[in-house]
Amino acid sequence: MRNDGKAQSAPALPRSLSSLLGPAPARCILHSPDSRGTPLTHTSRPRPRVPLCVSARARLALCWMTALLVGAPRALAQSDLSNDPKESFARGYELVQRGEFEAGIVHFERAYLQRPHYSVLYNLAQAYASVGRIVLAVETFERYLRDGGAEIPEERRSGVERALAHYRRRIGHVRFAVKPENATISLDGRPLGPAVGVQSARVEAGRHVVRVALAGYVEATRTIDASGGEEAVVALELERELPMEVLVRCAIPDVTVRVNDAVVSRSAERLSLVLPATRHTFEFTRSGYVARRIETEGRAGARLELDCALRVDSRYPEHAALTIRRPEGTSVWLDGVEFAGGAVPPGRHRLELAGPSYERLQQDVLLRPREQRTVTLLPEPTAEARARAHEAAARTRRIAALAIGGTGVAAAGAALALYLSNNQAHERWNAKNRSLVARLANDPDSVTARDLDALIEDENAIRNRDTLAVGLSVAGGTLVLGAVALVLWPFDAPTAPRLIGTPRHLALEAQF
Fold first, then answer.
1. pTM as predicted
2. Does one domain contain both 76 and 88?
3. What is the mean pLDDT of the chain?
């Protein structure tokens, strides 16, 4: 169409279609249903007035155009665009005539979106072809013929069909055979949709990149070389993506763990997570501690280990005070960090004590805000420490047994010596007694009180020595038995003494 509004016939298959560009009849796209004024231009042949904006057909065209033009370059500022379809079309036509096709395309597209009419598609298709976007040019020409129908002059229709035949020879076809069917197919960075709804696509001759992606599967990419008039097949079956395993350890109790801003645990001391092999953000928080964030880059089948390792917030105002009492030579850890006492965030904490002679001891403590607490830790001795103590006690017991046994032997020896000497004294006393009896038998009047006293004293002395000998013998035997018992009786053997009384006797029984 010329600038004077008269229609210009389309030439047959020109090398460049720029000469075919011309504004559509103004009555067709610029004449609103309620307009009472004169059209911007007049065509050589009157056309029926077409209502715009309100039909379902127009709405469908609008949706098609919006989807078709996704990704088209936008080099114009928003201030350069008009909200008036007449101005948009006129500006696009002017730019195209100057050879600024990309800028003209933007205005043509805007005019079509503002007032969808098939005649705009004629100009838009030629602009697409001029910048080498052959597929869009063919689709737009086809849309133009469908929407225009019988209203398109035969001469114009013939020119468009010849152009289509020319361009179709430069277009290849790509047929997709993709599994799973809900995988998304992208062609040269432009999403085409799920595989179930995309059977094929038209592409310009040349190299193209096909990407197929689906969450939980390994993304696949194929590069194809398309030829005009030929079909290329892209057959892809995505492989399931191996997840990544993340092991989270927190020595601090009651830490809240978030993965990608979603809470997964509020008490993660040991947490195992299976996540998609992508980038993830872990956040560890607890009152009284400085929050920590960790960014991870996932790899399929990888196993990551994370330690929350929170740091106490020194500015927190509600810290409690904790004092630890413990055996000498031991060390204490608070939530995995060596601790000697001091300020601690309120809440639950885990104390752990260890030493060279003690079993490892764990104990939880719950602290209130600003509380002052003293905790005494009394661990059990280790088996080695108990064995050493047992050996030391046994050694002491053996020494005591030797001392007691020696004392008992000495007492028994003294008792034996006393018995032997006392036996001689007893023989002498018997001789004196027999002599005295003999004298009394011959002379009853010769007995004196002094002789009787001396005899009685000798008898008492002998009896006292006998009593001492018996006592020493009993003591020596008891000491010897005690020494033997100390050696043979196990150090940690239990005892069960029991006192039994009857009318005839009293007995003490014990099990060793």
1. 0.43
2. yes
3. 76
Q: Is residue 257 part of a domain?
A: yes
- Residue 185 has a CB neighbour count (10 Å cut-off) of 22
**The tokens of 59 are what?**
């709405």
Residue 398 lies in a domain: yes
- Check residue 452 and give its pLDDT: 65
Interatomic CA distance for residues 504 and 190, integer angstroms: 113
Largest CA distance in the chain: 197
Distance separating alpha carbons of residues 334 and 250, to the nearest angstrom:
12
Q: Residues 39, 158: one domain?
A: yes
Q: Which domain-ending residue is among 336, 357, 380? A: 380
Peptide bond into 180 cis (omega under 30): yes
Q: How far apart are CA 381 and CA 414, in angstroms?
A: 46
Residue 349 resides in a domain? yes
Residue 301 token pair = 């089948």
Task: Please state, in angstroms and rounded to a whole number, the distance separating the CA atoms of residues 43 and 374.
Answer: 100
Could you tell me if residue 362 is left (phi over 0), alpha (psi between -120 and 50 degrees) or otherwise beta? Answer: beta
Residue 457 is classified by DSSP as H
The percent helix, strand, coil of the chain (3-state, each to 5) is 40, 25, 35
How far from each other are the two terminal CA atoms of the chain, in whole angstroms?
125
The answer to which of 233-237, 385-389, 404-408, 505-509 has the lowest mean pLDDT is: 505-509
Give the count of domains, the chain.
Answer: 5
Is position 344 within any domain? yes
pLDDT value at 346 more than 90: yes
Read off the pLDDT of residues 124-170 as tens digits, 9 standing for 90 and up: 999 998 998 888 999 999 999 999 998 999 999 999 999 998 988 88
Could you say which of 112, 138, 168 is where a domain stops?
168
CB 255 within 8 A of CB 284: yes
52: which strand partners? none
- What one-letter code names the amino acid at 25? P
Q: What is the pLDDT of residue 152?
A: 92
Q: How far apart are CA 351 and CA 335, in angstroms?
A: 7
pLDDT digits (tens, 9 = 90+) for 356-368: 888 999 999 999 9
Same domain, 90 and 197: no
Tell me the CA distances in angstroms from 255 to 76, 252, 265, 266, one per residue in order: 52, 7, 8, 6
